[in-house]
Amino acid sequence: MGSVLNIVKIGGNVIDDESELQRFLEKFAALPGKKILVHGGGKIATRLAAEIGIEAKMVEGRRITDEPMLDVVTMVYAGLTNKKIVAALQKHGCDALGLSGADANSIKAVKRPVKDIDYGFVGDILVDSVNKLGVKKFLEAGFTPIFSAITHNGLGQLLNTNADTIASALAVSLSDLYETSLVYCFEKNGVLRDVNDDNSVIQSITEKDFDSLKSEGVIYEGMVPKLQNAFHAIGKGVKNVYIGNAANLHLFQQGGFGTCLVSK
Amino acid sequence: MGSVLNIVKIGGNVIDDESELQRFLEKFAALPGKKILVHGGGKIATRLAAEIGIEAKMVEGRRITDEPMLDVVTMVYAGLTNKKIVAALQKHGCDALGLSGADANSIKAVKRPVKDIDYGFVGDILVDSVNKLGVKKFLEAGFTPIFSAITHNGLGQLLNTNADTIASALAVSLSDLYETSLVYCFEKNGVLRDVNDDNSVIQSITEKDFDSLKSEGVIYEGMVPKLQNAFHAIGKGVKNVYIGNAANLHLFQQGGFGTCLVSK
Fold it and tell me: 20 to 30 Å CA-CA from B12: which of A103, A207, A221, A224?
C-alpha cells in the first residue's frame, strides 16, 4: 500500500459563491500530501443555457442532457469553472491540473441506456471506468488533479456525469494504490443528530450505527442514499469517508472535520 | 539533445468546420513520436458572445477581452473546443491531455500593459513563460498535450493569449530539450510563388530567400509577420518551421507537407 490520498468533492453551492469558493480553495491548497478535487457544476450552466434559449429539461428531478445542453455543461464545468479553480489553486502554490474524464482517458463512462427515460448524453460509471494508472502518473509527478464532471465514452463522445459518483469511483479505484479517503464537502457541518442544531455533528458513524440512526429517524431523506453510497465505497476499499462543511476543511488534518464514516 | 518533438498549430477555420476538424485530428493522431497540438478559437466564441448579449469589442483589428468576454473564451477554447478535440483524439488512440496555461502552471503570461489601448485580459508571453519541465513530464509519460489559447498570470487571473504565439513560445522553449519542429496548419498548401496557383508551393525557404522573396513581392502582407515570427523561432533554436494545409498533415512524415523554413 502506497501513501495517503485524499479525494475532496465540492458541490455547486460553494462554486456559486465566489468568496466561499476562494476561501475553500485556499484551504484545499494548504492540505498536505497527495490529493484530488472533484467539482460539481453550480448554477452557471443553467443560467447560461437560459440566456442562449436552451430549456433545462428535467424528468423526475433528473436533468436531461440533450446535445445543446451537453455543450453548455462542457463549456461551464470543464472550461470556465475548472480553469478558474485551477488558476486560483496555482496562485496558492498548489500545482493543479484540470481534467475531464476524456483527458488522459482518465474516466471512461457509458451513455446511460434508454429504458423509460432517455437521459441523453449522461454517462454512467462502470467498475473499470477509472484509468488509475493514468491518474497515478499525475499524482506521482506532483500534480493535483482537478476533475470536472465531464467524462467520455472512448469513442469521441463527451458525457455529463454526476460529480459525487466521479469522486466515489476515483476513491474506490485509487484505493488499490493509495490509502484513500473521500471527503464530501457540503453546506452542513456534518451528519447532525438534531437537524436544527448545527453543532450536533455526529463525529463517527459505523455501518451498524447507520442502521440504528436510520431506524431512529435521525438520518432520513436525501442523507440516506448519500451515506449508502459512502458505505458502499468503504466496502470497496476506501479507508474513510468524511462529510462536512467546506468552510471547515482546514480542520481536516486535526480530525475536527465533520462526520467520519468508518467500516467498523 | 533528446528525441524529436513536433508542435502543430491548428487555426480557427479548421475548428469551425466539423468534418475538416475530424479529418485533421485523425491525421494528427497518426503522427508518430512526441507531439503537441495548439488550437485557436474559431467563431463559436464570437457567436456565443453575441447570443448572450456581449458585444465583441475590436480596436485596430484586435479583440478587446473584457471580463465577460474572457469568461466566454475560457468556456469555448478551454472547455468546449479543447474537450471535443481531446475526446476525438482519444477515439483515434492518441493519449491526449487538454491543457490551458494555468494547468500544471504550463504557460504563465503577463496582462498586456495599457499604453494607448487597454486590451483587457490579454496575456503576453515572456521569454520564460513556458514551464518546459512541466510539459516535459507529460511528454515523457506518453501524453500528447493539447493547448487551448488560455494562459494565466500565476496570481489567479486567466488571460486570453494568441495561439500562434503560444505555439511559437512552446517550440522555442522545448527546443532546449527536444529536436523541435513547429508546424503551422492553415488553409493554403504552403507559401505560394503564385497566389492564384495552389500548386505553386515553395518547398523550402531560408532566411536569405525570405529577404529576396519579400523584395520580389512574392511574400507580402499577412505572410510577412508570419514568416518573421517563424524565422525568429528558428533563430532561437527551433529546427524547422513548416507552413501548410491541415488537410495534408499525413504528408508531413514523407517531407511532402507545405513550405519548410530553414535557418540556412
Answer: A103
